[in-house]
Design a protein that fits this description.
This protein is α/β, with parallel strands linked by helices. 34% of the residues lie in helices and 16% in strands. α7 links the parallel β8 and β9. It is globular, with a radius of gyration of 20 Å.
Length: 299
């Protein structure tokens, strides 16, 4: 190939890299609404400035303003599994919330899937896991996404509900300890970290450390927490979950702890399925009852 042509191609590649590396897409909607429930892709801020969080937003019909529900997804310490993770949507849970008048945001945290970037909530090794640090890092991501979306004109600024699943639930507990003024309720499905230690069911990395961390989160928590776990959850069993909830409560947190019936072959994934959401519906309604947003009208 001619040397001049080689130079021109190399220069074009460098220029393209500089453009794509420096140009950050604007926060907010990234395309048109679609079905179901006005599904729309968004970019929202994260604590990692170079990696905005990819998110899915669902809304009821109309202009709002709607109360906001933020769903914080599960995670894994496995790098490959995180990189390959499809964008979390929790469609069944989101549909249930939209039917009750909520706009629902599901942000994908840094270190996962399309968001990419550094895994901010890394808990470290199994024996020396830092569950407080990982929980607070998750809480920071939830707060950044929530803080941006609550400023949108179709969102009510108060009465926010945070729903966390597994590691996302653990981050929601950490958020509760920061006493967020605009959050009315937290619902945590099997919150925790370190479950399935070394890929073995019913084994948890450093469970005493996890319990102590739950107590630390409960110390300053003032937001009421509904703690739900399926009877056949092999990541955080009802027995361990009760210990964690007791530690959170004994330190000063407000907890309504409930064991749900067994669901499928693995109850840990209950909030990700339509059947699981239906099985938890009465407990979800009870958790939301103090706020009572208006149910969405059909188009």
């Amino acid at each position: 190939m001619h040397p001049v042509r080689v130079f021109l191609i190399a220069a074009a590649v460098v220029a393209l890299g500089a453009t794509t590396g420096s140009a950050q897409p604007a926060f907010g909607p990234q395309g048109a609404e679609a079905e179901p429930n006005r599904l729309q892709q968004w970019l929202v801020p994260s604590p990692d400035p170079g990696h905005p969080a990819h998110a899915v937003l669902f809304r009821p019909p109309g202009d709002g303003p709607f109360p906001l529900a933020v769903i914080a997804h599960a995670s894994t310490q496995n790098v490959l599994r995180r990189a390959q993770m499809p964008q979390p949507e929790y469609r069944a849970l989101a549909a249930w919330l939209v039917a009750r008048g909520f706009a629902v945001l599901v942000p994908e945290r840094p270190g996962h899937g399309a968001t990419g970037g550094k895994y901010l909530e890394d808990q470290g090794g199994c024996d020396e896991a830092d569950y407080v640090k990982s929980g607070r890092a998750t809480a920071d991501v939830i707060a950044a996404a929530m803080g941006f979306v609550r400023k949108q004109p179709f969102i009510r600024t108060d009465g926010i509900v945070v729903i966390g699943h597994s590691a996302g639930g653990w981050g929601a507990l950490a958020l509760a300890s920061e006493d967020p003024k605009n959050v009315a309720a937290i619902i945590a499905f099997a919150p925790g970290r370190g479950g399935h230690a070394n890929d073995f069911p019913n084994r948890v990395c450093a469970p005493h450390t996890l319990t102590a961390a739950a107590g630390e989160f409960g110390n300053k928590a003032r937001v009421p927490v509904t703690w739900l776990v399926a009877a056949n959850d092999s990541y955080f069993s009802p027995a361990l979950s009760r210990q964690l909830a007791d530690a959170f409560r004994n330190a000063g947190g407000k907890v309504d702890f409930r064991v749900l019936g067994a669901y499928g072959s693995e109850g840990h994934w209950l909030p990700e399925t339509e059947g699981g959401v239906k099985s938890a519906a009465s407990d979800l309604d009870r958790a939301l009852k103090p706020r009572s947003p208006t149910r969405a009208k059909k188009r």
